[in-house]
Amino acid sequence: MIYRLQLPILSASSPWLRRRLSFYSTTAATASPFASHLSPPLKPQTPLFLRPLSHSTSPSALLSFRQWAESLARSYAADLSVDGGPSASELIRELSWLLQDATFEAGETMLLRTDLQDLYCLWKQRIEERRPFQYIVGCEHWRDLVLAVREGVLIPRPETEELVDLVAGVEGFKDGLWADLGTGSGAIAIGIGRILGENGRVVATDLSETAVEVARFNVERYKLEDKVEIRQGHWFEPLQDLHGKLSGLVSNPPYIPSSHIPGLQAEVGKHEPSLALDGGMNGMDHLLHLCDGLISALKPGGFFAFETNGDKQSECIVDFISSQGSNTFHDMRIVEDFAGIAMTNNSSNAKAGMVLKHLTAEELQDFIIYISMFDNEGRSTKLFITFNLLNSVFMIFNLLYINFNYKLIKIIIFVLII
């Protein structure tokens, strides 16, 4: 059985959710000139599983709903597969999760957290309108967190979990001052905030008022107000009082080329905020803007990590930064990994200056998988396993519920020196 809530490091999403969410992964809103067209902020909605059991129905009525919902899923499955949408079995798994969140058995009565008619409406939205499942239930399982999400806020992706693990490998990170630019639901900021030391702090920013409201809701729910501060504004603008003081900076900005937006999967392109997806003509607009502001934002020895699309964007950033001065940044390296799965799970020894590149299925042949293990004294050793046949890789990792249809993604990390 696949659980939505799993151990830290591993994603809390199913293989279907991993595949769907990994096409393009961002958590930030873009900047003006779109800012003037922003709609009024949407208030955070309480996730379905946290709502009171204020409705009831009979087991037979609920069974009728389930039978209808399964039939609807099967009837639409072929149409949904055209753009890589969910299969019937994957939709039925989501249906089970919906009922887990919405119902509670009390003898011969089924208590509900929403009216039964609302469940019919929600499921029609999921199937006929392709509304994302996370918006239906109002939350996403990410690492060991359950984060509130809603329309207007990008759904946090499993592969972005790796940013938190990389931060945890930075020497002295626990008592540093960190920034998360384009925080969206607050996922990265909260993930970092929960592992900081007594003096550590995260300041997270987002242009979207809706994202700021949702991020604050999530911060308050996890009682991290003393660790994570949410500010509204465009990239570095809310951090002017912190320039030159940041120990580290992370961001998962919009990096999808504008011309690719119309071809996105319906769940993404039709429902998630375009302000959080569109990276301009070549997807680099916001990444380059972030690079421009790093030197003034970070203190000497500071660390930063960006997630990018894998289509040469990382190389462009390296070239751009190198052109600004060869002695400003150092220790730039590439580490290959699956989207959302820490193949090198040795975060205590992670080195700043890595570029994380997630692999496509075609790149798996003859790939060496690094599995880190720790002995009782904390020393790390590595087990190297080589799979020469792609079919062998598929067979083994299918046992771990890993899907291989991931979009190539990279995370770039640099270190600022004096």
Write the layout of secondary structure elements.
Elements (H helix, E strand, L loop, with lengths): L14 H7 L33 E3 L1 H22 L7 H15 E4 L2 E4 L3 H13 L4 H5 L1 E4 L2 E4 L12 H8 L8 E5 L5 H7 L7 E6 L2 H13 L6 E5 L13 E6 L14 H4 L15 H13 E12 L3 H11 L5 E2 L2 E5 L16 E5 L9 E7 L5 E7 L3 H9 L10 E8 L2
Structure, explained:
It comes from Dendrobium chrysotoxum. GO terms for molecular function: nucleic acid binding; protein methyltransferase activity; S-adenosylmethionine-dependent methyltransferase activity. InterPro entries: DNA_methylase_N6_adenine_CS (IPR002052), HemK-like (IPR004556), Methyltranfer_dom (IPR025714), RF_glutamine_MTase_cyano (IPR052663), SAM-dependent_MTases_sf (IPR029063). The protein contains twelve helices and 16 strands. By secondary structure, the protein is of the alpha/beta class. The strands form four sheets. Strands 6, 7, 8, 9, 10, 11, 12, 13 and 16 form a nine-stranded mixed beta sheet that branches. It has a three-stranded antiparallel beta sheet with strand order 1-3-2. It is globular, with a radius of gyration of 22 Å. The C terminus is likely disordered.
